[in-house]
Amino acid sequence: MFSFTLLFASFFFILAWAQSSNPLQKYTISAPGINATFIPYGARLTNLYVNDKNGNPQDVVLGFDNAEDYIRDDETNHTYFGPIVGRYANRIKNGTFTIQGVTSHIPQNDNMGHDTLHGGQIGYDQRNWTVVSANSSSITFSLLDQAFEGFPGNVITYATYTVSAGPTWTSRLVSIPLDEPTPIMLANHVYWNLGAFVDTAGSTILNHTLHMPYSSRYIQIDNIEVPTGLIGTVDGTFLDFTSPKQIGRDISAAINNCGYNCTGYDNAFILDRPRYSGPEASDLSVLTLSSGSTGIRMDVFTNQQSLQVYTCDNTDGTVGVKRSQRHEAGTEFVEKYGCMCNLLFPHLLLMRFFSSHFLFPSVGTGVWKSFAF
Question: How far apart are CA 107 and CA 263, in angstroms?
Answer without folding.
Answer: 28
